[in-house]
Design goal:
Helix 7 packs parallel to helix 8. The protein has 2 domains: about 160 residues, Thiolase/Chalcone synthase (Peroxisomal Thiolase, Chain A, domain 1, 3-Layer(aba) Sandwich), CATH 3.40.47.10; about 130 residues, Thiolase/Chalcone synthase (Peroxisomal Thiolase, Chain A, domain 1, 3-Layer(aba) Sandwich), CATH 3.40.47. The chain contains 10 helices and 14 strands. With about 300 residues, the chain is of the alpha/beta class. Bound molecules: acetyl coenzyme *A.
């Protein structure tokens, strides 16, 4: 049993910052940032996560009659309750019986939410799955090792349960304080450790799914990886022997928006993901977590 993407939307944000912005303020250079990460620009917003959520979900045009579930993936919302998913339900006027919940699995949150939806929904029923991250509230803009990486972002999909192929693989490893955020503080990260974890664990996870479904690299039509670093993306593609042109990426424009990277990629490439295509997806990050999906679109 699987999921079909019915609609996908991305929220446009108002403040665009290029690498020069950081070059002028920190001991870094545009060239270093682009060469080591692939990032050229990122967006920030003055909106809070509640306002971002309202603005995002108002963009959806789909019929919400069969909606049974709303999940928001976020680690960066300041308002602990009500959940952003409850605010989304109220905003779109969905049925009061819709189950609304927020989850936090950092950058792997969106793919985790898709797995929950696939398990929860009955055939023909729908879910709104979105991510809303205001990472700028938790960034130390004086720390060059993290400030250059992140952006704010929100995007989501409406999915409908069907009977197509959908398999997943999840892994949670010891975090060893590699990626942390405490209340009232800013994100700290040991970038090299996260990098190593990603290039080792993401291919393993995706190979497991390809093996389970007996699909070879040339039978994979599209691949969407969490947008953290283009060197991670290229290394995973090389390891899997999947052509670069099957990989959607917009890291250069948006930077790392945590749970929002995958739905932003989906929203921007929605028309290019065709019915019947085999899509690989993997979110990875704090946890340390890897959450991968192989699905027929
Ligand atoms: N500008 C210039 N120099 C820098 C910068 C910077 N912004 N940041 C680090 N450096 C320096 C370091 O100090 C170091 O200098 P040294 O050799 O004199 O000690 C050198 O550059 C190399 O530093 P590394 O940390 O080894 O740089 P690396 O090539 O590993 O790149 C990066 C750092 C981009 C952070 C990389 O490790 C990375 O992308 N890691 C993965 C991050 C990630 O995937 N996060 C996802 C999860 S996020 C989430 O879950 C919320």
């Amino acid at each position: 049993m699987g999921l079909k993407f019915i609609e996908s939307k991305n929220l446009d944000l108002e403040i665009k910052r290029d690498n020069l912005y950081f070059e002028e303020r920190l001991d870094t250079s545009s060239d270093w940032i682009e060469k080591r990460t692939g990032i050229k620009t990122r967006f920030f917003t003055e909106l809070d996560t509640e306002e971002m959520t309202k603005k995002l979900v108002k963009n959806f045009k789909s019929d919400i009659e069969n909606l049974d579930l709303i999940i928001c993936a976020s680690f960066s919302t300041k308002r602990r309750m009500p959940s952003l998913s409850s605010i989304a339900r109220e905003t779109i006027g969905a049925n009061e019986n819709v189950l609304c919940l927020d989850i936090n699995l950092a950058c792997a949150g969106f793919s985790a939410a898709l797995i929950l939806a696939e398990k929860y929904l009955e055939k023909g029923r729908k879910a709104l799955i979105f991510a809303c991250e205001k990472i700028s509230d938790y960034m130390d803009f004086s720390d060059r090792s993290t400030a250059i990486l992140f952006g704010d972002g929100a995007a989501g999909v409406i999915v409908e349960k069907n009977e197509k192929l959908f398999i997943s693989d999840t892994k949670s490893l010891n975090h060893e304080n590699t990626l942390n955020l405490y209340e009232g503080e800013t994100i700290t990260m040991e970038g090299k450790k996260v990098y190593r974890f990603a290039v080792e664990e993401v291919p393993k996870s995706l190979k497991k799914l390809m093996c389970e479904s007996d699909l070879k690299p040339d039978e994979i039509d599209k691949i969407i990886l969490h947008q953290a670093n283009y060197r991670i993306i290229n290394s995973v593609l090389k390891n899997l022997e999947i052509d670069e042109d099957k990989s959607f990426s917009n890291l250069d424009v948006y930077g790392n928006t945590s749970a929002a990277t995958i739905p932003i990629v989906i929203a921007e490439n929605f028309e290019k993901i065709k019915d019947g295509e085999i899509l690989l997806m993997s979110g990875f990050g704090a946890g340390l977590s890897v959450v991968s999906i192989l699905m027929e679109c």
